[in-house]
């Protein structure tokens, strides 16, 4: 009886505390005592060291490393786990509530300029999933009009004309804390059109008041354009400028090496290189795009040969080749650098220009999938060639030509013919380095020129794979039957979990003792793929097709690592993080036993620290998995952080720990392990003139969209430096949202 009453109370207390970032050790201990050990995940959790959940009472730190998990019941091993959830609604702190009230008050006092026209943006309109026409419907349905009518306090929803509304955003929310799963809409209401079509709405419009994040008024609807149109419009305005300025511009050209136009090499055709090339070429630079890998047509065949015949082409694989690392991927276009910012919108619209479906502009979690990315990249290439970009595939940058501390050109070799005799030197006025984080040879080369590089935090871990049906049912319960292999009304279920695990005694100022454990690059309905660029190393990632119809759901489960973790490799200087990655990739290859076989272990065995002896559950990884003890891979503190976070993830998603869940080793290339220091405004490398390090490899992006945005801004910055562009990028796109290159999509 005591147990029946107290457990729910304590559990509720703990969970709400966890969500608010504070929980009480007492409650947690009591709960552990009272809960039945027959509860599988909890039983596993109890085998791990007790978790101290109260950050307000830190214990003295004796050892900065995570304690060993050898004997699972040792009481002295104390971890603290905090959740990273945003406080909303009733969970807001009083100071946050006060600030919100103040902003609301200011907004209400701002006079709505003209109530008879303009637009109202209505946020957070919830339509229950069972009433909504489904994820692929982007029109205005009657249930949505009902939600709008509620906000307007308009009595008859069906009288609201659909034409007056347009969908800005549509997402699916199936969190358990909701009464029922809902589609959440953001909608723009065109007042003039509404009053024309239904004058009886006037009384209601006249009474509307602004409320931050719920109901906001704008006189004009802001429509962003794709990048090509933005540049064309800008150049159109420029051509109307006075002749003097154009003379200055053309005089500037004379200082360039040959044709009178600045000659730029962009190295790497990933998102950052493609967008930088686009901007520079549209502004009139003579651009050569140098790519070590193959065009998507041949690259597809090379990836096929890897999957079927185990042939790894060193220069044409999942990381290298046209479109960059993200071409054979899930093509998630989510980003943490501000989805609604003008720069991100310009990138998204440009993707639509090159064939991405319109729904990426509306979908709350847009994704493309490999089948859509490949033709998109091809169209991007055709456009670049159409505006004069010379694209050199199978051409690898081997060296920079440096004179008097300035890059004057590049030394490249033809990797398709595999002959060093094919090495050539090409002169350029500037070199944009967009090589991604797997170009370790380029990092080495930069080191030879004493290019200033700093060690950057990143994350390492394992890739977990569950049956997709399991994830659907964990997330959607009864609604799981509506997924229908991606053809159904609700999206194929995904998840995102984050926990902070820190050693006993660490407080918020001791960041080096805390590790973030999180899932990322979740590929619903996807497959695990090999992203090694060298046959003696194994690293994995995930991809999927647009419909996300495979039987599996995979995601990286990673733990942050920083300079302290790379101490053992300090002789490699700023590249110690690269050596750290390489070390675990080699270990994974050895554990797998060669032939690209990936070491794997079930989640339950990984938590209990025992080898998976019975047969492993099936894996989507095509080249085979081998039952291995994944504890042999990483240092103990990383393995333990992963174990603890998995237990915590299971509390958020009960069933996450399952005998059908398989861990694959290793996931090491989550983002660049270094950052190449560059000037904040010119994007030029601070230690080598004429070099422009951009994108993920340079440590300034983490994902397709942020890399594209970085490429775009750097293109503008360089165009400005070359006097091809005389405007202000901030006016066009706003200030770049500084990406540390750590924040992932
Ligand atoms: C399997 C996989 C799945 C992913 N899924 C997603 C996802 O769903 N969503 C997301 O946002 N991100 C995803 N990513 C990450 C994303 O692909 C990268 O963040 C993004 O591509 C980085 O862009 P970039 O232009 O900076 O570099 P990259 O895309 O890495 O491009 C670098 C290019 O430079 C070329 N290159 C390298 N060295 C040389 C040289 N010496 N000479 C000539 N060329 C060279 C390479 O061949 C490559 O084409 C995924 C990555 C992988 C590997």
From TrEMBL:
Pfam family, one: FAD-depend_C
Protein name listed in UniProt: FAD-binding domain-containing protein
Domain named Pyridine nucleotide-disulphide oxidoreductase N-terminal: residues: 263-317
Database matches in PANTHER family: FAD/NAD(P)-BINDING OXIDOREDUCTASE, FAD_NAD(P)-BINDING OXIDOREDUCTASE FAMILY PROTEIN
Limits of the FAD-dependent protein C-terminal domain: 457-670
Protein source organism: Colocasia esculenta
InterPro entries in UniProt: DHPH_N, FAD-binding_protein, FAD-depend_C, FAD/NAD-bd_sf
GO MF annotations, alphabetized: FAD binding
């Amino acid at each position: 009886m005591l147990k029946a009453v107290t457990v729910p109370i304590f559990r509720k207390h703990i969970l709400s505390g966890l969500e608010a970032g504070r929980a009480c050790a007492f409650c947690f201990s009591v709960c552990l005592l009272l809960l039945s050990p027959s509860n599988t995940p909890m039983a596993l959790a109890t085998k791990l060291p007790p978790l101290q959940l109260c950050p307000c009472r830190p214990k003295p730190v004796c050892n900065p490393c995570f304690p060993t998990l050898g004997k699972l019941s040792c009481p002295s091993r104390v971890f603290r786990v905090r959740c990273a959830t945003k406080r909303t609604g009733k969970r807001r702190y009083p100071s946050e509530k006060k600030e919100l009230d103040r902003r609301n008050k200011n907004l209400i006092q701002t006079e709505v300029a003209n109530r008879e026209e303009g637009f109202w943006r209505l946020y957070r309109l919830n339509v229950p999933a069972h009433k909504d026409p489904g994820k692929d419907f982007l029109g205005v349905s009657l249930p949505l009009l009902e939600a709008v009518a509620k906000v307007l306090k308009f009595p008859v929803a069906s009288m609201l004309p659909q034409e007056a509304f347009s969908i800005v955003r549509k997402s699916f929310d199936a969190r358990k804390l909701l009464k029922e799963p809902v589609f959440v809409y953001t909608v723009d209401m065109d007042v003039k059109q509404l009053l024309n079509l239904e004058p009886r709405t006037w009384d209601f419009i006249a009474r509307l008041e602004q409320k931050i994040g719920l109901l906001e008024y704008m006189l004009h609807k802001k429509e962003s354009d794709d990048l090509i149109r933005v540049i064309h419009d800008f150049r159109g305005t420029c051509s109307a400028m006075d002749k003097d300025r154009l003379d200055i511009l053309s005089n500037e050209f004379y200082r360039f090496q040959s044709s009178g136009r600045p000659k730029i090499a962009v190295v790497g055709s990933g998102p950052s290189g493609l967008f930088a090339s686009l901007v520079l070429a549209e502004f009139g630079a003579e651009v050569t795009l140098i790519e070590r890998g193959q065009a998507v047509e041949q690259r597809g065949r090379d990836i096929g040969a890897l999957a079927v015949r185990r042939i790894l082409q060193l220069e044409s694989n999942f990381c290298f080749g046209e479109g960059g690392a993200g071409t054979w991927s899930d093509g998630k276009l989510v980003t943490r650098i501000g989805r609604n910012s003008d720069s991100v919108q310009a990138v998204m619209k440009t993707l639509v220009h090159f064939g991405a479906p319109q729904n990426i502009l509306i979908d709350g979690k847009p994704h493309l999938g490999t089948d859509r990315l490949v033709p998109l990249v091809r169209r991007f290439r055709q456009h670049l060639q159409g505006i004069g970009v010379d694209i050199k595939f199978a051409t690898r940058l081997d060296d920079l030509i440096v004179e008097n501390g300035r890059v004057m050109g590049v030394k490249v070799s033809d990797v398709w013919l595999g002959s060093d005799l094919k090495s050539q030197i090409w002169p350029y006025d500037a070199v944009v380095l967009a090589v991604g984080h797997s170009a370790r040879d380029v990092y080495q080369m930069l080191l030879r020129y004493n290019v200033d590089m700093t060690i950057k935090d990143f994350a390492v871990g394992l890739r977990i794979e569950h049956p997709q049906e399991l994830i659907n049912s964990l997330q959607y319960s009864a609604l799981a039957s509506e997924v229908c292999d991606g053809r159904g009304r609700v999206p194929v279920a995904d998840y995102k979990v984050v926990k902070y695990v820190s050693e006993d005694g660490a407080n918020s100022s001791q960041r080096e003792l805390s590790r973030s454990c999180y899932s990322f690059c979740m590929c619903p309905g996807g497959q695990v793929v090999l992203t090694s660029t060298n046959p003696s190393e194994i690293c994995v990632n995930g991809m999927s097709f647009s419909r996300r119809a495979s039987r599996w759901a995979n995601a990286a489960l990673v733990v942050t690592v920083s300079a302290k973790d790379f101490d053992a490799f300090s002789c490699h200087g700023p590249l110690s993080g690269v050596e750290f990655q390489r070390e675990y990739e080699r270990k994974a290859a050895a554990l797998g036993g060669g032939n690209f076989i990936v070491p794997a272990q079930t989640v339950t065995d990984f938590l209990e620290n025992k080898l998976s002896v019975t047969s492993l559950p099936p894996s989507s990884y095509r080249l085979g998995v081998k039952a291995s003890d994944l504890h042999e891979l990483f240092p103990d503190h990383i393995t333990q952080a992963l174990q603890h976070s998995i237990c915590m993830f299971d509390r958020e998603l009960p069933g996450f720990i399952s005998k059908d869940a398989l861990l694959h080793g290793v996931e090491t290339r989550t983002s660049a392990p270094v950052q190449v220091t560059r000037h904040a405004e010119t994007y030029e490398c601070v230690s080598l003139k004429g070099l422009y390090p951009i994108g993920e490899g340079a440590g300034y992006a983490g994902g397709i969209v942020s890399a594209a945005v970085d490429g775009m801004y750097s293109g503008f910055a360089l165009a400005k430096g070359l006097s091809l562009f005389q405007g202000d990028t901030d006016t066009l796109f706003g200030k770049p949202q500084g990406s540390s290159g750590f924040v992932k999509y």
